[in-house]
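Extended Data, panel c. Modelled sequence:
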Amino acid sequence: MKSSEEQSRRAKLVYGPGTPESAISRAAGFFGFWLVLTGADAADLAAGSIAAVAATWASLRLMPAQQWSLRPVKLAGLVLHFLRQSIAAGTDVALRALDPRLPLRPGFVVYQARLPPGTKRDAFCAIMSLLPGTLPCGPAEDNGLTIHCLDVTQPVAEQLAAEEALCVQTLGGSQRNG
């Protein structure tokens, strides 16, 4: 009988730069991208295979050594949440841009990220940059991120903290305590 910790560890998909699963999934992704670019022409399959192997090798060398515990159900929830947020935020941005009565107070906010610098934090910043109204601009003091937002009077830091918590739940790992 296996312990619940061991079963839970097996239930998660673990991808890291040194694992065969990571190499296979990256190679498949690169080859799939090649097929999309070339229209899946049979004459280009050999070149696509070579390109996918080269891209996989470079990717494995450049990607920081970090394990990801991807939770597929949480990922689906994050995608749905992201779509809802994008529609709501996009509508808000459009209304603010088209209606002069609605406030538009652009500026910068410093968000104290709890994720340590690295791949997961970069993924969080990429997700954040796709949501209308916020754009990470660079680092700030004390592990902070400088965020450009359309209305500095909104609770931007609280919203970003909730988004960061969702990313941590989806990608695995833990946030720093302070």
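Helices lie at 4-11, 20-38, 45-62, 72-98, 119-130, 156-171. This feature is highlighted in the accompanying rendering.
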